[in-house]
């Protein structure tokens, strides 16, 4: 037992435990793909170290019983205060508290003990308490601005304006209260060759079939036409002629916005009162608008589905997913499915994946309502079907075995539905439990589909066949070398190019074997980015997650070959890049930009040998 005139603390154990806390908080997300293993490392390593620290304090610190009890109570009070007041917009969020606040406070306490080691305990206890209080005060000035794809939180000081606040202030100054100009919104909008009418392009495969362009951007760099701030959101672009359609957050409203593709100026915006927020992913809509027959169809993160006039933004109809289906709240990460438009009876069906919190797994059961189809002209529901608690994938229209069908990926597996009725054609069961399935299924040919998932699950090659009217599926191969989170893949000449965690890689679709050697991974560590294939140019355009760079790679199975790279944006980028009409359109949660791609004839004239460089 100590007296007030001596300091009884021996600090090797608490210092070691603090190091274990930070190692448990940082290393799992940096060294492994985020999965249940990562969660266990966090819980066992961080939680175990904190319990051990508490045990050391109560049993082996050698301070008085009163100090031990008061120290525990003070620590609990500090942690409760930190959870409630520290994180802007995230009070009570478990992950920030666990990963940042707790080891931060324990570190401050230990540092206070080290600084006051030479002081009598009667004075040292107040130094330790002051450092504990200081930790809470410092953390109270911190704001969580989301995380990267590996769940590493991004922090800034609370007193600084958010990117959304800067955008809203500039928009109000430049465009007045409404901020909407209709100067570019007159006339009829029609689909033309070269347009990019929906998420991942006209075939939903992220392949650009436009004119080839030179891929040596050191000699022939794309020219920036414009750059502008946008509201937060992870929506991509739909491009119809010189109009860009996207979604973003504007204060307490979700907005579907039309921008002038030539200037970046806003043409119109249609809003709905909704604001979806998740501490890791941030605020804003996730889905990409879809164009069909003069109309734009959008789905907000909170579940608002709208049909809008593509020229003016006038609302044709509006529905609410949480009203039309059993799901009465958005899924954990918000509604992310873009709408699939399938021609039907002179109009179309607008199909969206929603997820059912209590699915039965049987397509004939009335409770199987994970997918809904709306009549595009009236907004009335046409059918509901489908299984899965949740998913963040967009339905894909595919022709398999000569039959058009809608493929819906979810945490239950991959399901095929008849477009007109929602009747189940086949179901490939591959559950992921509570882990979300986000990456789009990859259509290889008329009988082969690749389904890939992150969180350590990997990829399956699936063969789909029909025999005497009965559909069946077979697993061709399984691989742990393609594990994308929300990073979609592309298929080219028998190979899938996509993300395995933070590494861009290549897989043989016939065997599921890795084509690019693992030793080349350092060359393709792009984070959780996105990719689009410029087929006629022989280039994969890979958007990096952290650096805002666009990297051009040759689509070759013998190994990664970098052709060029160029910085096109600032900050974290999860949005899919778009190529349309010889232009590159990119955006993230802060800004958008347009680049004119170099012309191939200029490149061949400049080299003088008629060879594209």
Question: Can you walk through the features of this model?
Answer:
- This protein has 613 residues and is an alpha+beta fold.
- It has a domain at 12-157.
- The protein has a five-stranded mixed β-sheet with strand order 3-30-31-32-33, with no helix packed on it.
- Helix 1 (12-31) packs antiparallel against helix 2 (36-60), helix 2 runs parallel beside helix 4 and helix 3 (65-85) packs across helix 4 (94-115).
- The longest helix has 25 residues, at 36-60.
- The N and C termini lie far apart (79 Å).
- This is Outer membrane biogenesis protein BamB.
- InterPro entries: PQQ_rpt_dom, Quinoprotein_ADH-like_sf, WD40/YVTN_repeat-like_dom_sf.
- The chain crosses the membrane at residues 9-27, 39-60, 72-91, 97-116, 123-142.
- Residues 223-324, 366-516 form the Pyrrolo-quinoline quinone repeat domain.
Q: What is the overall number of helices?
A: 8
| DSSP strand count | 36
Low confidence ranges: 176-182, 361-366, 608-613
What Rg is obtained from the alpha carbons, in whole angstroms?
Answer: 27 Å
Mean pLDDT: 88
Distance between the termini: 79 Å
| Beta fraction | 25-35%
Helix content: 10-25%
Topology:
Layout: H1 12-31, H2 36-60, H3 65-85, H4 94-115, H5 121-140, E1 142-147, E2 153-157, H6 163-175, E3 207-208, E4 223-229, E5 238-240, E6 243-250, E7 253-260, E8 266-273, E9 277-278, E10 282-283, E11 290-292, E12 295-299, E13 304-309, E14 315-320, H7 321-324, E15 340-344, E16 347-353, E17 371-375, E18 381-385, E19 396-400, E20 403-410, E21 413-417, E22 424-429, E23 442-443, E24 448-453, E25 458-467, E26 470-479, E27 490-492, E28 495-500, E29 503-508, E30 530-534, E31 539-543, E32 549-553, E33 562-567, E34 578-580, E35 583-587, E36 591-596, H8 600-607
Parallel strand pairs: 3-30
Antiparallel strand pairs: 1-2, 4-36, 5-6, 6-7, 7-8, 9-10, 11-12, 12-13, 13-14, 15-16, 16-17, 17-18, 19-20, 20-21, 21-22, 23-24, 24-25, 25-26, 27-28, 28-29, 30-31, 31-32, 32-33, 34-35, 35-36
Helix pairs in contact: 1-2, 1-4, 2-4, 3-4, 3-5, 4-5
